[in-house]
Write a structure and sequence with these properties.
By secondary structure, this protein is an alpha/beta fold. It is built from 13 helices and 8 strands. The longest helix is centred in the middle third of the chain and has 24 residues. It is globular and about 60 Å long. Bound molecules: zinc ion (ZN).
Length: 394
């Protein structure tokens, strides 16, 4: 049994409905808050899908009315402010976000600000005045249609100012009242999205598991998520296997629950400036960096902190990947890194250069990577180590 029973805190979680057909529960759950909804979706149109058509018919049958907002790409602070300004006069009983991480994060930020009405820039971490958020928020229901960000379980909305920054609006009051996780919604997800989103989820669980703030409860959830993703991610990507949808949706949910408690690590530390400076999707950043960052963390820990509890944890995951309990620590850790490198190839993750990132960009990316997620990486990586992680994926 690993993990020491030192004090820890578990922040608020949503109520969760998980499973095939869970979407059918949305009309009743939403009606519990009133009859006027704001529905936020992505552009990749859930609204036009079979599931969307059925859902809207069910909402109508229940006498619910709604307005719909569509989010294109990763949401910006301007988009959130403009949406709030346009809708402020209308009282909404609940906000329903249906889509990938972008739609859920936009919906979460809008739900937070519809009633107070101020600019999201007042609260974003690391930019602006960072005023405390006092609410009130509008009840938020999150329905993920991808297996990736875990936003349905977290208290932060990530907003991107293209060319400038990628920062979070974060508060316990932003956590969804309900997360409705229906694996059937993954049926229409194209393979490239499955790969990038799935590796985001996997990275989030792995980084939570070795985070400096990991605790026995998050460790248990992270283990179950890693085991679910290990087989399901390649199967879902390669064969669009229907049986792999539920375990990937579960892994994504676990990634959100864990990261909300423990923070993340080097991959997400680098993802913040990469996503801000370049038009590279978040999942692609995670997928393309996770093997190199894991190798770098392991090498740094072996060299500078050989007694660190993250080392046996990497070994444990390596043994679970290898399905060989007898592997030594170094063998198991090498197996984990090799497995992640194989995923990089099998899942056809693009390299950084495909998004216009070159060697001369690396210093400013590294310089802007130190806040946020980097703080809970198991070991402090040097600028040279962070540069190497990026350089080997150019
Ligand atoms: Zn992520």
């Amino acid at each position: 049994m690993s993990g020491n029973f030192f004090p820890f805190s578990i922040a608020r979680l949503p109520r969760i409905e998980f499973g095939s057909g869970a979407l059918e529960k949305l009309p009743e759950i939403a009606a519990g808050y009133g009859n006027h909804l704001l529905i936020v979706t992505g552009l990749r149109s859930f609204a036009e899908s079979e599931a969307g058509t059925r859902l809207f018919a069910q909402l109508r049958q229940r006498g619910l009315a709604w307005e719909q907002v569509r989010v294109s790409g990763e949401p910006s602070p301007e988009f959130v402010d403009a949406t709030v300004a346009a809708l402020r006069g209308t009282p909404f009983d609940a906000v329903v976000g249906i889509g990938g991480g972008s739609a859920l994060d936009a919906a979460k930020a809008i739900a937070g600000l519809l009633r107070p009405g101020n600019s999201v820039m007042d609260h974003l971490e690391g930019v602006g005045p960072e005023l405390p958020y006092h609410g009130p928020s509008t009840p938020f229901i999150a329905v993920p249609t991808t297996a990736g960000t875990g936003s349905e379980a977290t208290k932060n909305a990530v907003l991107t100012a293209p060319g400038g920054f990628k920062k979070s609006f974060r508060d316990d009051r932003l956590v969804a009242e309900w997360a409705i996780v229906d694996p059937d919604l993954l049926a229409t997800c194209p393979p490239a999205l499955i790969a990038a989103d799935g590796l985001d989820a996997f990275t989030q669980i792995l980084e939570s598991f070795v985070s400096t703030r990991a605790n026995p409860l998050t460790d248990a959830l992270a283990r179950s998520g890693i085991m679910a993703a290990r087989d399901a991610l390649p199967a879902l990507h390669r064969q669009q296997s229907a049986a792999a949808r539920a375990p990937m949706a579960y892994a994504s949910l676990m990634s959100g629950i864990c990261l909300a408690q423990t923070g993340l690590g080097a991959v997400h530390g680098l993802a913040s400036p990469l996503g801000a400076f370049f038009p590279i999707p978040h999942g692609v950043v995670c997928g393309t960096l996770v093997a190199a960052a894991t190798a770098s963390n392991i090498a740094a820990l072996e060299a500078r902190a050989p007694e660190h509890p993250a080392l046996p944890k990497y070994g444990e995951i390596g043994r679970r990947f290898a399905m060989q309990k007898g592997l030594s620590g170094p063998e198991a850790r090498a197996f984990l890194v090799d497995s992640l490198r194989r995923w990089e190839v099998e899942l056809a993750l693009p390299r950084l250069a495909a998004y216009g990132i070159g060697e001369s960009d690396l210093p400013r990316i590294v310089a802007a990577s130190r806040g946020g997620s980097m703080k809970t990486n198991p070991i402090v990586l040097t600028d040279a180590e962070l540069t190497d992680i990026l350089a080997c994926r150019l």
